[in-house]
Amino acid sequence: MRIKFIANYIISFCGNFKIILDSLFFKEYDVVFYSKEFFHDDWIVSSLRNINKKKLHVLYIYSFSTSIKDKEGVAIIKLPERALSHIKTDILITAVSGIPRDVVSSNIRELVHMPHSFVSLHMVYAKDTFDAYNTIFSCGPHHDKEIEMINKVRGLKIKSVPIGYGRLDHYLLKTECDLICREERKVLIAPSWASGNIIDNIAIDLIHSLIECNYDVYLRPHPQHWRHFSSQLRGIVNIFNNSDKFHLNTQDDSGPLFACDILITDYSGISFDFYFIRSRPIIFVNSPLKSNNSEIDLYSINPIELSIRDEIGVISSHTIDDILEKVNNRDFKEFSIERLLYNYGGCSLAVNNYIENRIKG
Question: Does pTM surpass 0.85?
Answer without folding.
Answer: yes
